[in-house]
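Researcher: Here's the sequence for the chain we discussed earlier.
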Amino acid sequence: METPQIAPAHVPSIVSEEVRAYKVNAKNLFLPLFFSAIAFGIVTWLTYVPGMWSNLLQVFKPWLLVAALVTVSTRVLLGAIRINLVSHGRIPFIPAIRTQLVWDFYANITPSVIGGTPFAALYMNKDQRVPLGEASGIMMFLMLLDQIWFAVSILIMLVASLYVEIIPASIGSIGEGAISLYFLVIMGWAAIFAYATLVRPQILEWTIGKLFSLPFLRRFKGRADREMESLQARAAIIRKEKPIFFVKGVLLTASLWVCRYFLLLFVVMSITDVYNPVQIIFRAMAILLSYIIMPTPGGAGGIEAAYTVFMTPLLGAAFVAPTLFAWRFIGFYIFIIIGVFLTTKTMGESSLRKNQDE
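Model: Thanks. This is the structure I predict for it:
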């Protein structure tokens, strides 16, 4: 029996020539690590309290740090199950784990506006020889599920903000207004993107057409039109899926994002007794949403700044740097280390196969 595909092989690819030509080198790896290290150094300097590092042993709870590691591992496994589901089994579970790890890796070393999605599609093509059109369709649907979750999570935060202080009062009314506006814009865009993809693709086509008709964007209109054609071809395939397929995808997406929030919670709980679990969960949601517009690779530097703004009022200055380091090490540095191994190994094997075929 033929394996169902979320997008046939002939569907246009999201992998541009820039992505194909992208090589992981020392510079690509150095920049996110550099930005993160500089930001961590600044945070440590600004929040330093004499004896803060030596006092950690008095409150450190190693079993909760283990729980944090289990949480991040669970997220990767859920991500693999989601890839396997969306690909209709085309990507087996173990290769799906590798794809999820590579997706996280590239998301951490490329600007958030690019993300790891096209690179994961390319990896899927090289690792499992899935045609790029089909791999692009799979990754596009995964991206759509994340967009749906962004809209839902912001709606949840808006309701919760009536009972829980999510945006710190310490940033002032102007800062609070700016962050609230940002969340509303993200929610609006995510909702429009999901609705246009699943129901009315003409809306997105009209919006993009108007946007790239502006004088300073007109020179990019040809490329934008080609991208829209590609998007509509993939979206048409997605709309044919059964409702239960979307329900499973949304539930898996919500679960893996909840794992991201609990990672931060368990890290904080392992290092300090000063915490409010509910408030930390909602602030973790806010911190991770701020990643979307950060221009640096993996949001490095900006994420550390957002963490400091949102978490200092809850934890106190003495615990900000230690918890920040543990959180970023488990959720950022580890994935870079694993990703280097996976991408180097796969790209090397791919080149070897190509040479043998020739």
